[in-house]
Prior knowledge:
The chain has about 130 residues and is mostly helical. The protein contains five helices and no strands. About 70% of the residues lie in helices and about 0% in strands. It is globular, with a radius of gyration of 21 Å. Keywords: Membrane, Transmembrane, Transmembrane helix. This is UNC-50 family protein. Belongs to the unc-50 family.
Amino acid sequence: MLPIGSxxxxxxxxxxxxxxxxxxxxxxxxxxIEYTFWQMLHLCSSPKVVYQHTKYHKQTKxxxxxxxxxxxxxxxxxxxxxxxxxxxxxxxxxxxAVFVEQLWLQFAGCxxxxxxxxxxxxxxxxxTVTMKGS
Length: 134
């Protein structure tokens, strides 16, 4: 008979999925780079296709987000390349490249926080209207 509980033992792995996500950044063989570039291309040309694909993924695997950190890694690499190209074009040094990179990352973080706040307030208002109506 299999044991039902852990009998007071703590699990060896963290319950947070974030360390698992960080471990996958190191392993290039596990990243789906081809799908990442497909997704980036279609986000610019036809975002509806990406949304439908993501919706299908949610229906089949019951998960909105991807386990693969390849999108984040590719975005950071493209940001670094574009920053170096900017600094090379306008004859700036490495220190300025680091400054521009940090500026872009801060801008992206602020945009993420604003979008998350708007989404949360919108979802909260939608959920309260739906609950009141039922």
